[in-house]
Design goal:
With 434 residues, the chain is mostly beta strands. It has three helices and 28 strands. The strands form four sheets. Strands 1, 2, 3, 4, 5, 6, 7, 8, 9, 10, 11 and 12 form a twelve-stranded mixed β-sheet that branches. It has an eight-stranded antiparallel β-sheet with strand order 19-26-27-18-17-14-13-28, with no helix packed on it. A hairpin with a 6-residue loop joins strand 22 and strand 23.
Length: 434
């Protein structure tokens, strides 16, 4: 079997076609420089490609998309280049098993298998299916080392990795595809429909959640208006290291998420939105105000950028598309605390809330209808802890805002999802910081 091999600067997902085709020599130069490019494998006469390889060494990433004769993606393999430059981790894969030629690509009813692997040997295999008796099943994949890792081929020496999927028993003969047009230099102007390397979750309009008058939507309420942030109190962080964690489940000598801040006492407030909705049981329109985020305000200087705080075990090279890192909670609770006083502060939290000790020194319940619920303080160090409610269990990202000079301006936790920013009433774009 003859397989044509072509190169391009990007892959247009909407058109299912290469964007800015280039010669093998130009692709080799991009490969050596770590710049993104794609490799397209086609069988002559077949409209859809056999597979598309997506490469960006600067992002530690190689992806593989496999297509069937109907042009539907059937396999998605995400590989990562880590500390050993000679091999790749098969980090994440999804297989879609269409039940017939008429089933649409990524149809929700399509059975699929997802495999999530990590370099320390951990992993998870999830089977999902719909219809009668539908559901999911998660197991630990039993894989050999050579099934988790792949030797990294040199440029131009990659095999057709999807050969088995396409039922090829013999290695194909590769031929260079004709370059239809000359490639233009540079990465600027790449269409939004083109592939890009996976990115972790992005911060969204966090500044606007604390800017009265901004309009947002959570997808359920079509329009919500930001009102004045509500100041709840202050927090003392004498040790200069802020902890943002679940005070009940994140125990140990060091909390998982910490943020260095100058030693001091900082304002705690919560972002709020107001919205109206039709209440069925009242049979009338009602207006409600609810919190969207909690914040430790380090500086009055507005945040110019926001970044996701990482724990010591979080490796950005392993993050898949829209992945989050943060603190885990199974009690719908988080906290801001002085990390240097973490053990005595969380011990007081447990004694006051969990064990219910009466008249406990160093502990108080906060009863002012805010998201903040309990406060503890350590007399020896002066450090404090303030717990807050989230809207459920799971993982909550911790967003760190920095000024133009790179200094910490604030630390924010969204108690629910990230709202979407709406245009101003006059239709002009909102003056949003990232």
């Amino acid at each position: 079997m003859v397989v044509e091999v072509g190169y391009a600067q990007a892959w247009d997902l909407e058109a299912c076609a290469p964007w800015r085709p280039m010669s093998a020599e130009e692709a080799g130069e991009r490969d050596a420089a770590g710049l993104p490019y794609v490799v397209v494998y086609r069988e002559p006469g077949r409209k859809a490609p056999l597979e598309v390889r997506l490469v960006s060494w600067r992002d530690h990433y190689v992806g593989l998309w496999v297509y069937d004769a109907q042009g539907r993606r059937t396999h998605d393999l995400d590989m990562r280049l880590l500390d050993d430059p000679s091999r790749l981790l098969r980090r994440y894969s999804v297989g879609w098993y269409y039940t017939g030629p008429e089933m649409a690509e990524f149809d929700k009813a399509c059975p699929r298998i997802t495999v999530d692997l990590f370099p320390d040997g951990r992993g998870r295999r999830t089977e999902e299916w719909q219809g009668q008796g539908g559901g999911s099943r998660t197991t630990s994949p039993e894989l050999r080392d050579d099934e988790r890792w792949m030797d990294r081929p040199a440029f131009g020496q990659w095999p057709l990795l999807s050969a088995q999927v396409h039922g090829l028993n013999e290695p194909p003969a590769f031929e260079a595809a004709e370059v239809a047009e000359a490639a233009e230099p540079g990465d600027a102007g790449t269409p939004a429909t083109c592939w890009r390397p996976p990115r972790p979750a992005q911060p969204g309009p966090i500044n606007e959640l604390f800017r009265p008058g901004a309009r947002v939507t959570d997808g359920y309420h079509p329009e919500m208006t930001v009102v004045e942030p509500r100041r709840v109190g202050t927090l003392r962080v004498p040790g200069g290291l802020l902890a943002v964690c679940d005070p009940d489940s994140d125990r140990g000598d060091r909390p998982r998420i910490t943020v260095p801040v100058p030693p001091g006492e900082y304002v705690l407030d919560e972002a709020r939105v107001r919205f109206s909705y039709q209440c069925e049981w009242r049979k009338a329109e009602v207006t409600s105000t609810q919190a969207t985020a909690v914040r430790l305000l380090v500086s009055e200087t507005p945040a110019a950028t926001w970044e996701m705080a990482l724990g010591p075990a979080d490796d950005p090279r392993l993050f898949i598309e829209q992945q989050i890192a943060g603190f885990d909670t199974d009690g719908a609770t988080g906290c801001f605390a002085d990390a240097g006083s973490w053990n005595p502060l969380t011990a007081l939290f447990e004694r006051g809330l969990i064990q219910g000790e009466p008249d406990l020194d160093g502990y108080e319940d906060i009863d002012d209808d805010s998201m903040f619920m309990q406060r503890t303080w350590d007399e020896a160090s002066g450090g404090e802890l303030m717990s807050f409610a989230t809207t459920g269990d799971g993982t909550y990202p911790v967003w760190v805002g920095r000024s133009e000079a790179g200094e910490v301006a604030g630390v924010v936790v969204l108690v629910e999802g990230m709202p979407e920013l709406l245009p101003r009433q006059d239709g002009a774009p909102t003056d949003a910081a990232v």
